[in-house]
Amino acid sequence: MSTAQSAQPKKKRRLAQVAQNVKDSYTISRRSYPWIGWALLGILVALVALAVALSAVTSQALWYWLLMGVLLALMADMVVLSLATRRASYMQIEGHPGAVKAVLDQAGRGWYVESDPVAFSPKGQDFVWRLVGRPGIVLVAEGAPGRTQRLVEDEKKVLRRILSTVPVHVISVGTAEGQTRLIHLERELRRLPTKPTKLTNTEIDRVAKRLSSLSSKGLPIPKYMDPNNIRPDRRAIRGH
């Protein structure tokens, strides 16, 4: 079998996977944003109309401007669909135990996110997650403020004892008044102050290693409360 022949099935599989991903993204977005289809169509129509107008004004070939308009529309649609899918996914898993970890995993460069919660409450299924970045140490409480406050305070006492010079920030995630909604968690992380103390990459690494060694000495998390096993049904989110 030639190389060209063997490459064709792979190319078809890649295109099929891309098409399936776009379909899944649209399905997820449409659950929270029923207007997403009209928005994507509107972008296409607007840019095609702009292309026709530019062709008439510049007296250049219509096919050239139509091609540019369609390509730009596809790019814009993909950006809008990606943003809508991300927000819709967060809205659909909001309230599920461990949902905060799904957002923290997308924190990006400059953040060290611990894989397991540093504190939890089996009764209320409340969690406290810990991450380290340029603002310092961030404790993200997941659950009702009345139930997570004690967990957060206990963790802050430990941090003050072993890392007293590192700033500690607290974000409470939930739907109650005064809490940060799940879809706004990333924005809240970006808004954390870095003055007067801003950790360098080296300092972030040192603090993260210190916290990791501390966590390794703690008690293991019961299997029935393992956040890795308490995940929203991804197939249900995709619409399967």
Can you tell me about this structure?
The chain crosses the membrane at residues 35-56, 62-84. This is Membrane integral transmembrane rv2219/mt2276 narrowly probable signal mlcb22.21. Keywords: Membrane, Transmembrane, Transmembrane helix. The structure is a single chain. The chain folds into two domains: 3-93, no CATH class; 99-229, no CATH class. The protein has helices at 3-32, 36-58, 62-93, 99-104, 145-162, 185-190, 201-216, 234-238; strands at 112-113, 119-121, 126-133, 136-142, 168-173. By secondary structure, it is an alpha+beta fold. It is built from eight helices and five strands, in the order ααααββββαβααα. Strands 1, 2, 3, 4 and 5 form a five-stranded mixed beta sheet that branches. Mean pLDDT is 83; it is low at 218-240. The radius of gyration is 23 Å and the shape is elongated.
SSE class: alpha+beta
How big a fraction of the residues is strand? 5-15%
Overall tally of domains:
2
Number of strands: 5
What is the average of the pLDDT values? 83
Radius of gyration: 23 Å
Low-confidence spans: 218-240
Query: What is the count of DSSP helices, taking H or I runs of 4+ residues?
Result: 8
Q: Biggest β-sheet: count, sense, barrel?
A: 5 strands, mixed
The span between the termini is 36 Å
Protein name: Membrane integral transmembrane rv2219/mt2276 narrowly probable signal mlcb22.21
Organism: Actinomyces glycerinitolerans
Pfam families: DUF4191
Keywords: Membrane, Transmembrane, Transmembrane helix
